[in-house]
Amino acid sequence: MENYKITNKLFSEKEKGSKETVFALANGYMGIRGTIEFCEPELSGTFIQGVFNKGDMSVPELVNLPDPLSINVYLINEAGLQRVNFNSCNLLDFSEELDMRRGVFLYSVSLKTENGYRVNIKSERFISWKNKHRWAAKYWINVEKFSGRILIENTINNNIYNNSMNPLDKTNHFGHFRPLNFQDGIGMVSYLTDSNKKIIQMCSTVPENFRMNRLKYKEELNRPVEILCFDCDKNREYCFTKYGVIYSDYDLEDSSPEAVEKELNFFLRNGYDKELKEHRREIEDNWDRIDIKIDGDDEVQRALRWCIFQLNSSAYKINEYSSIGAKGLHGEGYKGHVFWDTEIFMFPFFLYTNPEIAKTLLMYRYSTLPGAIKNAFETGYKGARFPWESEREGIEVTPKWGMSYKGEKVRILTGDHEYHIIADIALSIYHYYRATLDNDFMMRYGAEILFQTGIFWNSRLQYNDSMDRYEIKNVMGPDEFHEEVDNNVYTNFLARWNLKYSAYIYFWMKRKNIRVFRELTDKIKLFPSEVDGWREKIEKIYIPRDPKSKVIEQFEGYFKLKEYEITKHDENGMPLWPDDLDTDELNNTTLLKQPDLLMLMYLMPEQFTFEEMKENYDFYERRTMHKSSLSPSIHCLLSISVHEYDHSYEYFKKTLLTDLYDNQGNSALGIHAASTGGAWLAAVMGFGRFYIDKDDMLNFDPWLPEKWNSLSYKIIWRGNPMEIEITHEKLRIKPLKESIFFKYTEKIFEATVGESKEVKIL
Amino acid sequence: MENYKITNKLFSEKEKGSKETVFALANGYMGIRGTIEFCEPELSGTFIQGVFNKGDMSVPELVNLPDPLSINVYLINEAGLQRVNFNSCNLLDFSEELDMRRGVFLYSVSLKTENGYRVNIKSERFISWKNKHRWAAKYWINVEKFSGRILIENTINNNIYNNSMNPLDKTNHFGHFRPLNFQDGIGMVSYLTDSNKKIIQMCSTVPENFRMNRLKYKEELNRPVEILCFDCDKNREYCFTKYGVIYSDYDLEDSSPEAVEKELNFFLRNGYDKELKEHRREIEDNWDRIDIKIDGDDEVQRALRWCIFQLNSSAYKINEYSSIGAKGLHGEGYKGHVFWDTEIFMFPFFLYTNPEIAKTLLMYRYSTLPGAIKNAFETGYKGARFPWESEREGIEVTPKWGMSYKGEKVRILTGDHEYHIIADIALSIYHYYRATLDNDFMMRYGAEILFQTGIFWNSRLQYNDSMDRYEIKNVMGPDEFHEEVDNNVYTNFLARWNLKYSAYIYFWMKRKNIRVFRELTDKIKLFPSEVDGWREKIEKIYIPRDPKSKVIEQFEGYFKLKEYEITKHDENGMPLWPDDLDTDELNNTTLLKQPDLLMLMYLMPEQFTFEEMKENYDFYERRTMHKSSLSPSIHCLLSISVHEYDHSYEYFKKTLLTDLYDNQGNSALGIHAASTGGAWLAAVMGFGRFYIDKDDMLNFDPWLPEKWNSLSYKIIWRGNPMEIEITHEKLRIKPLKESIFFKYTEKIFEATVGESKEVKIL
Known about the structure:
The structure is a homodimer.
Chain A: E1 5-8, H1 16-22, E2 25-26, E3 30-32, E4 46-48, E5 52-53, E6 61-62, E7 71-77, E8 80-84, E9 90-99, E10 104-112, E11 118-127, E12 134-143, E13 148-155, E14 174-182, E15 185-192, E16 198-207, E17 213-220, E18 223-232, E19 237-248, H2 257-270, H3 272-290, E20 292-295, H4 298-313, H5 340-353, H6 355-367, H7 369-378, E21 401-403, E22 409-411, H8 414-417, H9 420-436, H10 439-460, E23 462-464, E24 469-471, H11 489-512, H12 514-523, H13 528-540, H14 597-603, H15 610-621, H16 631-641, H17 645-656, H18 673-687, E25 690-692, E26 698-700, E27 710-717, E28 720-727, E29 730-735, E30 740-744, E31 747-751, E32 757-760
């Protein structure tokens, strides 16, 4: 199985943090960063999806839990006690690998101790995709020419902080800790400061091919420490396994220490190999759905697989109280908050490969409706105002203040003004329903979100008397360089669409099931007069669009801003700031952080002509600084749409390598999950050019970079999985469950179930 | 002022621990190891003399206190947050210095941050010799070409353990911590687990040439953290000072947080420069008493000064509840316990340079008499059995068990069998009284110790019916390779001497002051019959001494042991184990760890002829492995006595460089305080050959290594300070308070007060 491995053979202090992210493992329930037990981590990280705590911070953050990997190894012989780690020893050899086919992180290090012994350590770690609370790490230790005793010090390290890199924000979210000592290992109960809810961690260390004794159990600043030891013969390899389980009070299961110990015992009885086998079977099933094959471009192939593997690792189909944070389960960045990134950049991947998880992501929004309603109420509106940054409850948790580089407080306005998230969520419901025809979801959950967001927009629209039109003033569009603008096209367009679709579903539901319709509209007090208001306003929402020019003004007054065009790029092809620019004045220039109008064109391609898209692409692309990791993937997609193929491959690589090359410089804080989703979008909906047209017809219009021999992927459309293979000559579609019709260059073809329909590329 | 500085310009991970010891500062009350704030310490260490705690350990240990030096510096500018420390930056330049004339530790480091800024930091630190609870550190920071903000994170780090290098023994001696936040800084109250007694630490950080704000105060796992910040201009140097105070419940002063805060405020008001000036004045006074000048050998001069500086730093003349641990206040080694090292190796230095401190050291023993009496009672004897290892109470605290390199428990027998400590203490009282004629001390304290030790020996002696003699079986002499022997000459000889001197003082006191005599003998129930017993036994104590051979058998049966002679040495001239030796069998060989009989000859030179000394030196020196740092100094002294001058200088250098070159490999655990005392002994009583003969006459019989031009030192004899200067040609004695008689080569000379008496060296 080729190109399923990410490897790194160069240990670098500078890249340590980003590598910990790249090599992190997650299973949607929890994530553990790819730290090396024998090396001081840059940022150790253990997270449970949805476990937030505010503590002393201004807003809640995804809690960095006590580190269960903590292990120290010591050699003892006549020469005394020698610690085996990167600090005390010389590093002779290093390699680490993420084997995405097996779902394991492996590393191998050779260290030379102070007294000159060569210690070879290999480790393999996985977090079970089968039993989401379980993780295990296996170690092989061989000390060349050494005989003596080896001590293993095992703990669950509670000296862990969120934001540990920044002294101002560094915080430990636990009020107290209860160490646990039991027959087969150690554990810890950690109590969150806000709620006093418990996190229970337990682990047990088992020798595989030798005998090991527990010399001592003790507690250090409330953490449990056990010391194990064994006698070491010259040149023999010793193998032992650490089994761990993690539960929280939020889990449905009983989370008493006794219950958790029982679960650990089940795990121990199952054993490492069997658990790994079950885990691998799950992973295989997943690869079977999600894999994308690119023939002829190994680096891109591996990087793309890394993106979809990590994105797929970030979601969990059972727990409806969680979604995917902007940094996955891979780091603390953005405090684990959920942004529009989830719906716009990650959701399509799940929708077309694993619709159950796509539904879970929407269910998270449904479960946070009460919070969204509260947000609207508290800011003077009606309906549901989904927060720009969301945690468990759906309350707006965007920090109000950040810190400038001078240490001065700076007001953060995204949470106040980025209303578009509300329509972004509504749009995902549209896509979900269209791709699944899941009536049950729409009736029970989707419609309620659509109605509440419709009510919100209706209350948010501002009537301009003199122009007899509705406007939305003082907003921020996706482009965050312009913080307080009026009539942002993206926002107004999607708000209008939201109202339209909400109204459509209102009447659809009324026709479909009058009883359920009545129950819902009664419950949320949605009267016909409200929907009449939507319909009236839809007609009058102002969408600034100069009929003479094809270039659309991003918001009112944008064309009057100080004009800049990007002319210089760095060695990686990323734009450089114009020389004469004062970055405090970005708000007053035409430079963009990330696509705004182009984002709209990507989302609503049928609303724009090819010429419009092309001219707008040409105009805005030259003004976009790509200071967001969301930017390159959308530019890749658009460049294909407008046939600016010269750009496409470069934007694709930037998307793929965001974390692998740490090209935003902050991968240490977690994966750029939107970028991983963007990578899937660019591959499948960009190069693969799969899209659904206004008639709900499947369309394929692929374009491949010259270097590639073929591109293949799978999608599921309305329960019908299909295989797509694209070469420079042929397009092949093979539906697996029922025959389908599809379009290529305006022509309709039929693909019979189980057979490959081959179409010649024109 | 030359040769008062110890410098190191090479930063080495491997030597970090021993350098932290070499550059440690202490003032007798407290000690702080020479850690560099910006570098992860090998072993951070903050100690208060006499503050012990047992906790989970088998015996109490000198507690490693929370680290008040803890400080982190961050740069913030457009490039983000950069931490300034050895881990995150490249080390460009490093130097550290102990300026013994000023009593300060200084270092200077240049670090290159991730973003390429060069940060130059200088620091100066002292622990006040004037106000024993005060310490301060001054920092100068300059960041080249950087403008932005600098954050300073200040804490008192409670994540500190004793024995942190050894996972089995690693222990935090505090049950809980109370962080303190007050107007000018932070503090912490730490509660010892055994007694719940408090340690209170407070510190305040004050900018010297700029303005600094406190951004935040917070608590992390019960430690106080304050974050200070200032705006940094390009290339300017910023200077700030951290003032600290430390108190414990054992101190006589009020140790409430309020009282401590008041004391800190006094310190702040006094200011760094004034405090340093007062501190320096104390240090000057001390140098004036203790300095030894060697002309012509700079390395030896500096090393010798380091020894006497650190030894002098370890004692405190006010607190009578403390003495000097085997590792000073400079590390955790030997758990801070007090051994015979204090009386035999360190005491003479204080006796002849600062008799008040010598008295304090004896007062410590007096204060522990109740513990010593308890030890005797519990082991089946009478009187006072001073413990081999002693802490605050005088209870025997030698660990019963150690751990072999295989992790197996090994019985430690020193605490059971090294009885000689009892007579070693008695001998110090003799020396003290002879050198001071301090009748008050002898009457009130000394006599009681002598009586109780007399009673002890009387109860310990075993009558051998068949030989009609008293024996002492099953003991360990100073040489710890032979653990359970009978009639060790050193022990028997000193026990006899102890009984003799106790009896002498008994009658002396009776004559001198019958009332005080009666009070004391009544109090301790010392009846004439007991003293009669002493006198009878003195005659019959068996001292194995073959009249035919001048080589004395170290203990009964020693000559029958398996014979080894040392024939090979390592590159440093230290003996190597004979090839065919099994180190488990040391007990059965003639090899010695350290001098035993030679030790006796050093202590009681007038009891042996020159020929006896010479033959015994020749015999035992060849069998001594010097596996104790106590060994080289005594061999230096003896080699001069027996005119084996070839050895003398080498043994002297080994003594001096024990810690500076870490030649025992364990200096990281603290100074070898006995070796520092041994250095003084070797210089003054070896090369300087100052000794008091049986008629209490001052004697000088110097011998100088060829390299040296002169050796000068000061001593105080019966309140009369005198200056001694020795060259290869002349001996000059200048008494400062009254005229004296002294002997050189059996001739008596008179030195008139204030004048140098010059005698030609023969």
